[in-house]
Automatic annotation (TrEMBL):
Entry's EC annotation: 4.4.1.13
Cofactor: pyridoxal 5'-phosphate
Homology family: Belongs to the trans-sulfuration enzymes family.
Species name: Saccharibacillus brassicae
Single GO biological process annotation from the record: transsulfuration
Protein name: cysteine-S-conjugate beta-lyase
Enzyme class: lyase
One of the record's GO cellular component terms: cytoplasm
Keywords noted in UniProt: Amino-acid biosynthesis, Aminotransferase, Lyase, Methionine biosynthesis, Pyridoxal phosphate, Transferase
A GO term for molecular function: cysteine-S-conjugate beta-lyase activity
Xref: InterPro entries: Cys/Met-Metab_PyrdxlP-dep_enz, Cys_met_metab_PP, PyrdxlP-dep_Trfase, PyrdxlP-dep_Trfase_major, PyrdxlP-dep_Trfase_small
Amino acid sequence: MQTPEEAAQALKDRHFDTKLIHFGAEIDPATGASSVPIYQASTFHHFDIYNPPQYDYSRSGSPTRQALEDYISLLEGGAGGYAFASGMAAISAALMIFSAGDHLIVTEDVYGGTYRLLTTILSRMNIETTFVDMTELDQVKAALRPNTKGVYMETPSNPTLKITDVGAVANWAKEHDLLTLVDNTFMTPYYQRPIEQGVDIVLHSATKFLGGHSDVLAGLAVARTPELAAQLKKLQNGLGTVLGPQDCWLLIRGIKTLGARMERSEIGARRLAHWLSERKDVEAVYYPGLPEHPGRGIHERQSTGYGAVVSFDVGSEERAKRLLNRVKLPLVAVSLGAVESILSYPPMMSHAAMPREVRLERGIADGLLRFSVGLENVDDLIADLEQALAD
């Protein structure tokens, strides 16, 4: 049986779509089963007390979780991957690398849950945060303090889809010995691999596009170096916020179709974004695939696709809520990245934890909606939105 390192080496020259199916643990070596087994066990027998087994207690590691962790590490090109009970559990564990007195520079329009963690929990532990517009590298540089230890990026940002130049920020951060982290939920490794651009830790809410079916809650973290991987492993084991074996199996199954889903959803998202941009009753459309998007050039240099999320402003809270009550096809719900389209209202959902005045400063207006395009026929989605937008 190959080790994860041997499997990664054997697969390194394969195309990404091939790696999604052939990732080193796709066949059970014991039985030949075509699916990773679900090891529904909390503890493991020591056959020889002088030679402890690889797995001893499922919080510290399990074969099903190991298969998933090696899988995401291979896809992101990292030295080690770790699976957590949610996206926020993964983000929280990664940020626990920092200590009291440290200062972080963070994307200003970051996901609301991350904002809440930084401003109401880590702040109590004396970890300071400065939020900046990361589309401007000079603002990132100006936020540097003597106690700055890390830079946290989200690109495209949630929900306004602003673009950060990942390579430029990572290069600057290395000059100042800063740890860099990127939330790669929107793009996934199918379209964007930040480790290849020098980023230290990549994070995912795997609940979204990686899982893809609105049936699993999960988070993933991938480290660039063995040293950082060891730190993440220690935090995962110490905090205990691990992903259970059945959820690991669901996530493995979901990732296998990532390429097909992302490509199909992106085709729909591009059509939807262009249609919305031509409507006079829509004040703004945010999508990096639009020619007028200010970050399009940078995004195209660091990503191979535009993604499946489109945000748009219909002008007011009243009009946004009326549309939400009129649509028939998308789920009106928290989350994104599923086979079914999901329409969200960030002021009440993903960014409810952000005070209104802060939210408005970051361009998250009362009329802003976020549309995660699924696998439905895009003409049906457009017709549904058209009737919902009608006065």
